[in-house]
Specification:
The protein has 628 residues and is mainly alpha-helical. It has two domains: 2-337 and 475-492, no CATH class; 510-627, Rossmann fold, CATH 3.40.50. The chain has helices spanning 2-20, 24-45, 51-71, 75-87, 89-105, 113-129, 149-158, 168-180, 194-206, 214-217, 222-237, 244-258, 265-285, 293-319, 325-334, 344-357, 372-388, 394-420, 432-442, 444-459, 470-482, 485-492, 499-509, 512-521, 543-553, 570-580, 594-598, and strands at 464-465, 468-469, 531-537, 557-563, 584-587, 611-617, 620-627. The chain has a five-stranded mixed sheet with strand order 4-3-5-6-7, with helices on both faces. Strand 1 (464-465) and strand 2 (468-469) form a beta hairpin. Helix 13 packs antiparallel against helix 14.
Length: 628
């Protein structure tokens, strides 16, 4: 059904572009949002695979639509539209990138810690469970309420191989989604010049590495959220030439998906809405006309829809007891129950040093290494240059400049506060390198979003150099001067050099006992959403190994514990099972602990290395052997 899914996506793009008279590069991100939201709805039902039927339905409707166009003698009009679109250099570049980037990245394997903790492990669970896990069965309990927006396209690509999980396809989906929200910038590639077309593709891939590099190695949500935020800011100012329906629907869809990218998505949605409301007010003020009532109503709808999107996810999390450990820390901070740590001076010093002098893309390179402060100041300078070059009006200069300056101060203040509270125990942030890693990752929506918006203004110029948009050339020059080439190369091709080594290191971390555990609990089995408490001896503690086991065990949800067999009793075991909300128990050999477990098996011999089901009734917990 993979071909049908891809065909349905293409049909939706063509249909909306044709009906709304929009260019394909503007419509693709809109359809990506629609697909993401539809898949989220199916995931709630545990029926992601039903998207196959939806795709088939779209294809059938398209066939009927085609016959209708033939009968009305309008098929030629559609053909002419498609021919015109496919001749546009920007559309050609975009479609080629959407084809080849997923292919080039399809052999990637998970290497990054946060992917093992959640982003990759969760997608594996979606693949095997065909939707969100049931109550107390999510595979990453410490990150339970992390939103699923970016996970949907990863699943969609992995579903192209329904019979065997292909790990690399999640990266194909991740980069596909990221590219979709960069495509609107390609409208400014208007000359069929092979050199410029190839260069624009390279620059588009390099662009995020000017300020953010984690997205080239992992598949976390920060980069995706940043690109959606940038695309949203551009969509706000890009009103001319679009129908009212397309303009406001695009704004709504971008925000609905952005808020589902990450827990911090609501911050950037709030910034985005503030920008949109302010821009709309000033646009009418300097257009010498009042804001129409219909505009107010449409903006209210744009505001409400992402709120409903977020509310739906939070209600699901509450009902299924999905809460992230950082959410709890944030709640304590908000209620004033979290104290600033003793290391606050060191943390502040690391933040200031990193903000002023460390490269946003983390490492020194042969290109220009912009610090967070340098880029923050440059954004303001760029706004002034745009005004001096008459690419924006005076009110746009004042408004956009003020918005970027103020939103930057607010975000970086929030970022510092979060390190003094939520991330206070994470000692890597006491060093400037660790701190700039956090600043560039969490600040990606501000840095990438700001550059995205200003690039749009710069490329709107009519001035040409050798027949090529002068603003396009300037933006290309900026990216080529500030990108992290090593990281960009590793993300698309260079990863192959260390792929086998990564797989071997992963295999080495999973010891013999863990491999036996994975076999007994039924790792990588469809529909196997059980939660298992995995106990080891108190002398055998390894949270790194546990994280890797959790990744390999998906869709099985694994909780971990270590006990002293000479001190534990059956009450302690029952409490551990209850705290873990586990339906099953698995125990590696523990010195001296057999008697305690025997009390829970109705006196029968308890065997280590076996899976037991936890049965509770009549105020008693009993362990029933399942396999071993």
């Amino acid at each position: 059904m993979g071909i049908v899914q891809i065909a349905a996506f293409a049909i939706m793009v063509i249909w909306i572009a044709y009906k709304e008279k929009e260019t394909v590069t503007d419509v693709i991100p809109v359809v990506t949002c629609l697909l993401t939201l539809c898949l989220c709805g199916l995931a709630f039902l545990g029926r992601l695979s039903w998207s196959d039927y939806g795709a088939l339905f779209v294809c059938l409707v398209a066939i009927i639509w085609g016959f209708a166009l033939v009968r009305k003698k309008q098929i030629g009009e559609l053909g002419d539209f498609l021919k015109a679109e496919l001749k546009k250099p920007g559309v050609i570049v975009g479609l080629v990138m959407l084809l080849f980037v997923p292919l080039l990245t399809s052999q990637k394997v998970v290497t990054w810690w946060d992917d093992y903790n959640f982003w990759a492990t969760d997608v594996k669970a979606l693949y095997y469970l065909d939707g969100f896990a049931k109550k107390y069965q999510n595979v990453a309990p410490e990150f339970g309420d992390y939103p699923p927006g970016t996970q949907m396209l990863k699943w969609w690509f992995m579903h192209l191989s329904p019979d065997e999980l292909q790990e690399g396809l999640m990266f194909s989906g991740y980069y596909f989604m990221n590219l979709c929200f960069l495509l609107p910038l390609l409208r400014f590639v208007k000359k069929t010049n092979p050199f410029i077309m190839v260069l624009s593709a390279i620059v588009l891939w390099l662009f995020p590495t000017c300020t953010e590099v984690f997205g080239m190695d992992g598949c976390c949500a920060d980069l995706t959220m940043a690109l959606i935020y940038g695309a949203f800011l551009v969509a706000v100012v890009d009103k001319d030439g679009h129908s009212e329906l397309f303009y406001y629907a695009r704004l709504s869809l971008y925000l609905m998906v952005m808020v589902l990218c990450k827990n911090t998505g609501f911050i950037w949605v709030a910034f985005g809405l503030l920008f949109a409301y302010g821009y709309e007010i000033f646009r009418h003020k300097y257009g010498q006309k009042a804001v129409a009532a219909k505009t107010v109503k449409r903006m209210i709808v744009v505001t409400i829809l992402p709120v409903l999107s977020e509310a739906g996810w939070l209600l699901f999390c509450i009902g299924n007891r999905r809460v992230a450990k950082l959410t709890g820390a944030a709640v304590r901070m908000a209620t004033g129950n979290m104290n600033v740590p003793e290391v606050k001076e060191e943390m502040i010093d690391a933040f200031v040093t990193a903000f002023i002098s460390y490269p946003l893309h983390r490492w020194k390179t042969f290109s220009i290494d912009l610090s967070p402060l340098a880029l923050y100041l440059l954004l303001t300078v760029f706004v002034i240059i745009l005004y001096k070059k008459k690419l924006i009006t005076k009110w746009q200069c004042r408004y956009v400049g003020a918005f970027l300056a103020i939103s930057g101060v607010v975000f970086y203040s929030i970022n510092l506060l979060s390190h003094l509270t939520i991330f206070a125990v994470e000692t890597q942030y006491l060093e400037p390198f660790g701190m700039v890693s956090s600043i560039e990752r969490y600040g990606a929506p501000f840095t990438i979003g700001g550059l995205y918006l200003l690039a749009y203004f710069a490329m709107k110029t009519d001035k040409q150099f050798m027949g090529i948009n002068r603003g396009l050339l300037v933006c290309m020059g900026f990216v080529l001067l500030t990108a992290n080439y090593e990281c960009a190369y590793r993300g698309i091709i260079g990863y192959r050099d260390t792929r086998e080594q990564t797989l071997q290191e992963r295999a080495d971390i999973i010891d013999g006992q863990a491999r036996q555990f994975l076999e007994r609990v039924g790792a990588r089995q469809r529909g196997n959403g059980k939660r298992v408490l995995y106990l080891r001896d108190a002398s055998d503690v390894s949270w790194v190994r546990n994280t890797y086991i959790g990744f390999e065990a998906a869709p099985v949800s694994v909780m971990y514990g270590n006990i002293d067999g000479n001190a534990v009793n059956e009450t302690d075991i029952v409490r551990a099972i209850d705290d873990a909300h586990a339906g099953y128990l698995y125990v590696d050999e523990i010195a001296g602990g057999n008697d305690a477990f025997r009390q829970l098996t109705d006196g029968t011999e308890f065997e280590y290395g076996c899976l037991y089901e936890v049965c509770a009734g009549n105020g008693k917990v009993t362990l029933l052997k399942v396999s071993g």
